[in-house]
Each structure stands twice: as C-alpha cells, then as structure tokens.
Amino acid sequence: MRTQFLAAASAAALAFVSFSAASADPAPPSPDSAVTPQAVVGADYSYVGLNDGLGNANVYGANLGGIVPLQQGSPFSFQLTGAYHRIDSHDLGGNDWNVGGAFAWAQPWGRVGANLGYTNDSFAGIGGEVTNYGVYGEYFGDRFTVGARGGGATGSAHAFGFGTGSSTGGYVGGEAIGYAMPNLAVRGTIGYVGIDAAHQLTAGVRGEYLFSETTPISGWVGYNYADLGADGFSVHGNTISIGLKYYFGGGGALQHRDRTGVDDWGPAQIDWNR
Q1: Which end of the chain has fewer CB atoms at under 10 Å, N or C?
Q2: Is the dihedral of CA 243, 248, 249, 252 positive or negative?
Q3: Domain of 218: which CATH number?
Q4: pLDDT value, residue 231
Q5: What are 134's strand-pairing partners?
C-alpha cells in the first residue's frame, strides 16, 4: 500500500510534466490566485548536528508534487506530493519518506483546505510512522503570506523487530512568508506535534530565489531546529539545508507560482525537517 501511494504521487507529478511539455507555449500567468495545472521537482542536501555527543548526519534526497484544479476555472483543486531522503551517520543508515494529498479552495485572498499525509522514518533498526490529517489556511497580502495548520496525528514506533501499538495526538503549526522581491521569498515556520508521551517541536527559516521566470529553476537555503522527546528523553538537532527546484507549468514570478501552484507547507506531511 505504501508503494502504491508513492507511485500515485509520482505518476501525478509526471503527468503534469507531460502536460507542460506538450503545450506549444507556456501557460500565461493567471491574473489572480486561480490554481493552474503545475508540478515541481526538487533535490536537496542537509547537514544535521545533534546534541549530547550524538554526532551528525548527512541527509539527501528528492521530492515531487503536482496540483490540478478539479475543472478549468474551478476554485477547487487537488494536490499530491511525495519525497524520499537517505540518512547516513557514522557508518549507519536510514530512510525517510512520505506521501500526501490535499483538497483545497482558492480565492484571491488566500487558500484553505484539508489534507492527509503519511511519514515513515527508520534508522539503524529503530523507526516509526505517523499519519496526519487536518486542515490549513493561508492569507495572501501584497508582499506577504501568513498561514496556520492543525489536526490529528496517529503514530507508532518499532525497534529491532519489536513494535508498539498506535497512539493518537495532534499537531499545530504556523508560517509567515515575506517577498522582498517577487522572485525572492523568505519563510519562517514553527510547528508542534504531540503523540502520547512523545513530542516534536520544530522551527526554521528558509530563503528561496527563482533565477529565471522563463527557465524556472530556483535555489534555496535554510536552517531548522528540532526538539524530539519521549518519557524524559530528548534529542536536539540543528539542520542546515540547500536545494534546487524546477517548476513545470504555470508561469510568472515565484510569488505567483507559490499562490497558484503546489503548496509545500500548508498541506504537507508533518516531519522533523518542516
């Protein structure tokens, strides 16, 4: 089932890529915030430093996503996303992957929606999985965006072949994006997840710049802090990340693409690096 979810996300994004490539001319930017068929693929690298002598890790991987309106001119849209990352630390390895979907209603003033996401992490025989479900909303200002999200979460953990039963909890988060220029976005985020006796607190900042509107490749750099704990035990991590994105379909500046295309925060899966 997990493989089917990831395959569905990949197929959706590749379908949008084909749609874009088959068009004789790029779709002109819409005059408002109406969602148009778009996709984005990206690759990134992160360096993670942990507290209490736990060392560091190198994380690298890729992600993809696509969005389409339910019909031409409709304010309602559907989005699919997926990502995979490899974790390497001190001759030990692990995997982090997630898939998710969202249904949203877009207006010139913002976007609101509901989402469902799944995240699976494993490292050196220890791992866990979380399913999140909730709602989100974003408000669009002239040169800024603010947003909030929240909902429920169900998680389970396993270690060396022994597992735990599932537990439930919830999550909340907020974001603020400032556009110093239409092609330069600086985003700050904060989030909290609590499931039974375990918790995760994250906070981060990221800057993204779209190098060209005709060849829509962007680069980004970010910093993220994470505090994970359970039953009196906690781990703190500081992460520095860099990445590239390529946008398919749509058009215009980065600010316009953020508001008419794939949303990589509001409906996203909850994870340690978001």
Answers
A1: N
A2: positive
A3: 2.40.128.130
A4: 74
A5: 115, 151
The DSSP-derived string for 215-226 is S-EEEEEEEEEE
Q: Are 62 and 83 in contact (CB under 8 A)?
A: yes
Angstrom distance (rounded) from CA 183 to CA 119: 31
Burial of residue 71 (CB within 10 Å: 0-12, 13-18, 19+) is exposed
DSSP 72-136: TT-SEEEEEEEEEEEEEETTEEEEEEEEEEEEEEEETTEEEEEEEEEEEEEETTEEEEEEEEEEE
pTM of the model: 0.83
Is 122 part of any domain?
Answer: yes
Residues 165, 148 contacting (CB under 8 angstroms): no
CA pair distance 84, 271, nearest whole angstrom:
12
Look at 16-25, 125-134, 168-177 and tell me which has the smallest mean pLDDT: 16-25
Contact (Cβ atoms closer than 8 angstroms) between residue 247 and residue 257: yes
Structure tokens at 239: 């992460």
> How many domains does one find in the chain?
1
The answer to whether residue 273 is domain-embedded is no
